């Protein structure tokens, strides 16, 4: 089932929770809605589900307007952050629940219900827990059962609102991989709300980055991470260093370092900020080429395959730390210790005009 969202807006009193949202979700896609708290992710999910009505705009399921379609006709399955399993029912009965409460004329035969529930429990790899009660399961197991229960009624769309939000970091990571694999087998159009960037980037086919009720960028995890559309996305997705400089007729200067900026050919001596990821900064002990920024090392973190350096730019008023990531081999070649002077140069950067942000 494909989903199209057209010019969707929603106010709560005078507060705009969604502002002119436009989005196409492909059939079978796993899409993450990512953004800070209050950015409108849950509201958007609830409007798609039919739990909330928008003030204006449309939701189309398979090109048909679903805006006024009641919830039960939308065939959506839900999984929320807090597993809402029935405490007095076994795991098997929890998963079977949606099938048992169907009107008699649509209800499967007892044997068919048994088969479907058994298959689902196998799919979430918890068939051995069928006779237990929810309190006898771990948080991660309960979320997998919540997912099996949502899938039991064969939804066309699966909506997951921070499904792993209440779990500890290790279990979250395991369930991420597991959800990805499950989705690859089932191919149900799924929308997944999270404020955890790593989770969104690891699990989804595409990420929708939201902020203050608007979509800032839509793209594959690679696209939004490697080519952020604007400063908000840059800062929200991973660490980024900011260097202040100027742009003039297609050339930019950060300190003495001169950079091509063809996309700013029209700029006439404007203040700009360069956004540079920690792994996109070159470090050397000597000035390599005509220009580089002098800095000194204030901290070294050398655990794991990547060495993280914290530097302070010399002669710079603000003592903001510059974070740099280099390989262990490069670190060994440089033989750096705390206090050493280095010269740095951005290998790749994005320039944004200062007055716009
Ligand atoms: N029923 C409501 N009445 C009034 N304001 C609401 C209501 N529901 C949501 N809001 C407001 O709308 C904004 C968006 O909320 P929403 O829950 O969609 O954000 P979110 O991105 O999912 O945040 P979180 O990650 O914290 O869940 C918030 O500022 C919230 O306070």
Protein described:
This protein has 357 residues and is of the alpha+beta class. The chain has 2 domains: 234 residues, P-loop containing nucleotide triphosphate hydrolases (Rossmann fold, 3-Layer(aba) Sandwich); 116 residues, OB fold (Dihydrolipoamide Acetyltransferase, E2P). 27% of the residues lie in helices and 34% in strands. A 6-stranded mixed beta sheet has the order 6-7-8-3-9-10, with helices on both faces. A 5-stranded antiparallel beta sheet has the order 13-12-11-14-20, with no helix packed on it. Strand 11 and strand 12 form a beta hairpin. Helix 3 runs parallel beside helix 5 and helix 4 packs across helix 5. The mean pLDDT is 90. The structure holds adenosine-5'-triphosphate.
How many domains make up the coordinates? Answer: 2
Helix content: 25-40%
Going by CATH, the homologous superfamily of the largest domain would be P-loop containing nucleotide triphosphate hydrolases
Number of helices: 10
Distance between the termini: 38 Å
Organism: Nitrosomonas communis
Domain ABC transporter: 3-237
Keywords: ATP-binding, Cell membrane, Membrane, Nucleotide-binding, Sulfate transport, Translocase, Transport
InterPro entries: AAA+_ATPase, ABC_SmlMolc_Importer, ABC_transporter-like_ATP-bd, ABC_transporter-like_CS, CysA_C, Mo/tungstate-bd_C_term_dom, P-loop_NTPase, Sulph_transpt1
């Amino acid at each position: 089932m494909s989903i199209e969202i057209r010019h969707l807006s929603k106010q709560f009193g005078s507060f705009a929770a969604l502002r002119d949202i436009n989005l196409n979700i492909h059939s079978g896609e796993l899409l993450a809605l990512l953004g800070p708290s209050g950015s409108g992710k849950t509201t958007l999910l609830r409007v798609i589900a039919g739990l909330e009505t928008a003030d204006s705009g449309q939701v189309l399921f398979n090109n048909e307007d679903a805006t006024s379609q009641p919830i039960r006709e939308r065939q959506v399955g839900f999984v929320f952050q807090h597993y809402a399993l029935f405490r007095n029912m076994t795991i098997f009965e929890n998963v079977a629940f949606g099938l048992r409460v169907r009107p008699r004329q649509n209800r499967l035969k007892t044997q068919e219900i048994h088969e479907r529930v058994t298959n689902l429990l196998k799919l979430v790899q918890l068939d051995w827990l069928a006779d237990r009660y929810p309190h006898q399961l771990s948080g991660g197991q309960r979320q997998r059962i919540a997912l099996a229960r949502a899938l039991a009624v064969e939804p066309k769309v699966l909506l997951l609102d921070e499904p792993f939000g209440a779990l500890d970091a290790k279990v979250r990571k395991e369930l991420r991989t597991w959800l990805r694999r499950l989705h690859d087998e089932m191919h149900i159009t799924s929308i997944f709300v999270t404020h955890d960037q790593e989770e969104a980037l690891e699990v989804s086919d595409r990420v929708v980055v939201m902020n203050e009720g608007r979509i800032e960028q839509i793209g594959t995890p690679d696209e939004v991470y490697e080519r952020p559309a604007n400063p908000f996305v840059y800062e929200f997705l991973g660490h980024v260093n900011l260097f202040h400089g100027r742009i003039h007729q297609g050339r930019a200067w950060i300190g003495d370092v001169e950079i091509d900026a063809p996309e700013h050919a029209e700029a006439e001596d404007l203040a700009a900020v360069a956004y540079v990821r920690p792994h996109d900064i070159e470090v050397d002990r000597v000035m390599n080429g005509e220009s580089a920024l002098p800095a000194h090392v204030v901290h070294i973190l050398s655990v794991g395959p990547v060495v993280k350096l914290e530097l302070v730019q010399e002669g710079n008023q603000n003592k903001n730390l510059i974070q740099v990531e280099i390989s262990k081999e490069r670190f060994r070649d440089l033989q750096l210790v705390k206090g050493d002077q280095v010269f740095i140069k951005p290998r790749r950067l994005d320039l944004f005009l200062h007055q716009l942000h």
